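Morning run. Coffee first, then this:
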Amino acid sequence: MEALKLKSGDRWLSVAPMMDWTDRHCRHFHGLIAPDALLFTEMVTAEAIIHGDRDRLLAQAPETIAAGRCVALQLGGSDPDRLARATELAAGYGYAEINLNVGCPSDRVQSGRFGACLMAEPDLVADCMRAIAAATSLPATVKCRIGIDDMDEEEGLDTFIDRVAQAGVDVFYLHARKAWLQGLSPKENREIPPLNYDRAERLARRRPDLEISLNGGLDDVSRIIGLRDRFDGVMLGRSAYRTPMILGELSAAVKGTTTPSRLSVANAMADYADARTAEGVPLHSITRHMLGLYHGQRGARVWRRHLGEEARNRTDGGALIREVAAACERMATSIAA
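And here it is:
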């Protein structure tokens, strides 16, 4: 399968890699809402790709491929040779970019000597990126934090970025908060260390030759629009998952397009569910990603409750999605009348 080619500006909006969330069903859902967004896989370790079921780990939804969506594969690992081998094995699955995780703070990731702890080893990261780049013609990029633990946010981040950039990396997704590897849980690391957009902006100004996308705490369309002038792109994480229509609103505001209706997205996902459940995929595996579609709308509670409670017991494809979406639309219409 031929990879899609990312052009300058294609990373202006991306959806962050999130473990247990951004699987192929979630990515198809987000792609329906914001067709021009760059979507990310969950982090997949190099060892899993080398030794595991590659089709299960790497295969994309055929509808995502047919629609021409750009998807980045995020790898986890710290052995250059293993990362290169995983990159080679991922060829043919239609990815547009290979990204290395240098931001995850979980204990499991640290024990494998990858994720955010690699910020303390910029030379090793540089070696990893050279190996990945040598194994693919796709862009090789990095997602990282502004620092870890007691690392100085100024000198430490500059050193890390400069060393890795010397290896040929020119695209960085920067989560604008530190990761505290000792004393904070992964959940706390997403909330407690303060966001520092100013530090991220100083990096972007100092290295205008690099493409810097801002990540962390982005949940308001008007604020995000204001930040876009300071960065090459924005990456949304939890807000894209919990309130997914923010992607469509942001895309419409920037591109001057029309935000897709919730009903059109729901019906398209129902068609998708018809196809996937016929292949044996449980309906709940699809609907669990859609619970935020009607967030802030009349009927949101009905949507969440029925999709959350009934999907496990339904065997009629996307019928449940169509039924509940139609009920939500009737509720909205009755209020408008």
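The chain is about 45% helix and 10% strand. Good start to the day.
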